[in-house]
């Protein structure tokens, strides 16, 4: 399991724009780099990131081999009601990780 960091406010006023920051530890191997024996190191990247709020998609990103290791993504959304954000990273070799964080709207 990869280490993740999710930064979003715990509370927000109704109608406020909030910033969400995510970081996941992942080597993001492109598949183009030769290894110690001269053979190409197999590709191993995160290919997709999806953020949902109470099941409704609010942000999606498609990632490619040129993305750096440990992808850091920042985006904004509108705080309309209290609930839970779910963050899912998927990638090569069956990689999938899901984390969640709650938001309370006042």
TrEMBL record:
SUPFAM superfamilies xrefs: E set domains
Record Gene3D superfamilies: Immunoglobulins
Pfam families tied to this protein: SoxZ
Coiled-coil features, chain-numbered ranges: none
Annotated Sulphur oxidation protein SoxZ domain residues: 9-101
Domain of life: Bacteria
Protein name, UniProt field: Sulphur oxidation protein SoxZ domain-containing protein
Record organism: Methylobacterium isbiliense
